[in-house]
Write a structure and sequence with these properties.
Distance between the termini: 29 Å
Largest sheet: none
Order of helices and strands: HH
Helix content: over 70%
Number of helices: 2
Strand content: under 5%
Number of strands: 0
């Protein structure tokens, strides 16, 4: 599913950072920053899941 690809999450994180930069107040900027951090974590997780499992 495309929405589970790391690239998708990285794009969303960038969009949230842009929204934070143009937010009308600090509270909304903080919400967008938190969402950007969440999308960054999701991108890392999706990238880990994409890696082949290593044999013991």
């Amino acid at each position: 599913m495309p929405s589970e690809q790391p690239e998708y999450y990285l794009r969303r994180a960038a969009e949230e950072r842009d929204a934070a930069a143009s937010a009308p107040n600090a509270s909304l900027a903080r919400v967008h920053d938190d969402l950007a951090a969440m999308y960054d974590r999701m991108a890392k997780e999706a990238a880990r899941e994409r890696e082949p499992a290593l044999a013991d």
